[in-house]
Amino acid sequence: MIEGPDARLAKLVLALRSQGVTDPQVLSAIERTPRDMFTQDIFKDRSWENQALPIECGQTISQPYIVGLMTQALTLGHRDRVLEIGTGSGYQTAVLSRLSRLVYTIERYRTLMKQAEGRFKKLGLTNIITRFGDGTTGWPEQAPFDRIIVTAAAQEEPEALLKQLKHDGVLVAPVGKGPVQKLNRYAADGRGGFNIETLCDVRFVPMLEGVAREL
């Protein structure tokens, strides 16, 4: 028997709960964001599997568990302004947009940015501001941000981005030089420092300077 989309979504949400993604608002945002809209046609039938999938430009759409975990770690409020480094398919962006006031997102691949913008328009998501550019430097003109999420691995602590957080802000990012990185949560302590918590090991593409050259 072939499961329908609703059954596959329900199974995914149960899997996320069992892995520790329990925030009801985060789970609701994931339920309301059709992941199949963000995947390539050849992977549509696998859209609701709890695994990463390839997208254009040699990038990936993150595993739903990682999307849920990172979103939950941000502890978002509906008045928050969020900076996302690495738009990718736009799936994480769309989830964030349902939980915050404004999402500023930067992508270094023009192809991915244009595709994501089209998806946001189809979904009627009007609180997302996009930028094609170098995410390593953040978005100083719009700083400080309540929350920052990085969807590519920084080799070292992302100091330039941490400086763009509010005094009580939170940044979630994979950090490390190897194929396996640490997913870190940085919570500003209000005195210029950060309380750092490592959530788990992850595998992300590296965060690169500049914009990508596409053929």
Structural commentary:
- By secondary structure, the chain is α/β, with parallel strands linked by helices.
- The protein has a single domain (5-202), classed as Vaccinia Virus protein VP39 (Rossmann fold, 3-Layer(aba) Sandwich), CATH 3.40.50.
- Helix content is 27%, strand content 25%.
- The protein has 6 helices and 9 strands, in the order H-H-E-E-H-E-H-E-H-E-E-H-E-E-E.
- The protein has helices at residues 5-18, 24-31, 64-74, 91-97, 110-123, 159-162, and strands at 53-54, 60-61, 81-85, 102-107, 128-132, 145-150, 165-175, 181-188, 194-202.
- The strands form 2 sheets. The protein has a 7-stranded mixed sheet, covered by helices on one side. A two-stranded antiparallel ribbon has the order 1-2.
- Strand 6 (145-150), helix 6 (159-162) and strand 7 (165-175) form a beta-alpha-beta unit.
- The longest helix has 14 residues, at 5-18.
- It starts with a helix and ends in a 13-residue tail after the last strand.
- The relative contact order is 0.13.
- The mean pLDDT is 95.
Which terms would index this structure?
27% helix; 215 residues; alpha/beta; two-stranded antiparallel sheet; Rossmann fold; 9 strands
Report the average pLDDT across residues.
95
Unreliable spans are none
**Element-by-element helix/strand order:** HHEEHEHEHEEHEEE
In total, how many beta strands?
A: 9
What strand line-up does the widest sheet have? 5-4-3-6-7-8-9
CATH class: Alpha Beta
Proportion of residues in β-strands: 25-35%
Strand count, sense and closure of the main sheet?
7 strands, mixed
